[in-house]
Automatic annotation (TrEMBL):
Keywords: Isomerase
EC number: 5.1.3.13
Any Pfam family matching the protein: dTDP_sugar_isom
Keyword Isomerase: yes
Function: Catalyzes the epimerization of the C3' and C5'positions of dTDP-6-deoxy-D-xylo-4-hexulose, forming dTDP-6-deoxy-L-lyxo-4-hexulose.
Name of the gene this protein is made from: rfbC
GO molecular function term, any single one: dTDP-4-dehydrorhamnose 3,5-epimerase activity
A GO biological-process term: dTDP-rhamnose biosynthetic process
Designated name of the protein: dTDP-4-dehydrorhamnose 3,5-epimerase
Keyword Nucleotide-binding on entry: no
Catalytic reaction annotation: dTDP-4-dehydro-6-deoxy-alpha-D-glucose = dTDP-4-dehydro-beta-L-rhamnose
Source species: Paracoccus litorisediminis
Lineage: superkingdom: Bacteria
Higher taxonomy: Bacteria, Pseudomonadati, Pseudomonadota, Alphaproteobacteria, Rhodobacterales
GO terms under cellular component: cytosol
Length: 193
């Protein structure tokens, strides 16, 4: 398991080992003990999500759930290829309002750990792309929120107009967004030697 820090404290790239053989590969896509041994103690996951986006340039986001149902998400791509985006919305964070994007694909098996306190969204780069993510809290529609995908200057790498949900098409811009999250400095991951 390779764990890599990113430009946003708390957001990590995880690359589980793939055991290839004549049949294909085997990979432990989630193993709490392996991560603990690597020095990473993630919160408990209570819900797994899986969605299919049929068309290229399907864009879902940018989403969050407010406390008390804030969600950390461990994201991977089950099929196809997508560009996954996290935006720091922790008030007082040195990187507040900054975003990062990572390509997650079936091919690269990469995962993105996005703690609570971030917006999350993605755009598909291949047809019939599937995303799978583990969440640290249950779906709570009353705490569900969205920020307009095009209000943060994110380079989504679109090839045409994005396909959006009705909800995402009318989401408020980041300038009008009052984040419910406060920064606290305990997001650093220290690899154990
Ligand atoms: C998110 C969610 C939706 N639903 C329902 C509500 C609705 O009828 C249908 C589709 O919901 P949405 O349009 O919100 O789905 P979607 O736009 O895919 O929402 C997801 O986007 C990505 C970027 C995230 O980070 C997720 O947390 C989630 O917000 O599924 C659930 O039953 N459970 C859930 O956990």
């Amino acid at each position: 398991m390779q764990i890599t820090r990113t430009s946003l404290s708390g957001v990590l790239i995880l690359e589980p080992r793939r055991h290839g053989d004549a049949r294909g590969f085997f990979s432990e896509s989630w193993n709490r003990r392996t991560l603990l041994e690597a020095g990473l103690d993630l919160p408990e996951f209570v819900q797994d999500n899986h969605s299919l986006s049929a068309a290229v340039d399907t864009l879902r986001g940018l989403h969050f759930q407010s406390p008390p149902h804030a969600q950390g998400k461990l994201v991977r791509c089950g099929r196809g290829r997508l560009f996954d985006v996290a935006v720091d919305i922790r008030k007082g964070s040195p990187t507040y309002g900054q975003w990062l994007g990572e390509e997650l694909s079936f091919e690269n098996g990469r995962q993105l750990w996005i703690p609570a306190g971030f917006l999350h969204g993605f755009v598909t780069r291949e047809p019939d792309t599937e995303i799978c993510y583990k969440c640290t809290d249950h779906y709570a529609p009353e705490c569900d929120g969205a920020v307009a995908w095009d209000s943060l200057g994110i380079d989504w790498g679109l090839t045409g107009a994005p396909l959006l949900s009705d909800k995402d098409a009318v989401a408020p811009g980041f300038a009008d967004f009052d984040s419910p999250f406060i920064y606290h400095d305990d997001f650093e991951y220290e690899a154990r030697s």
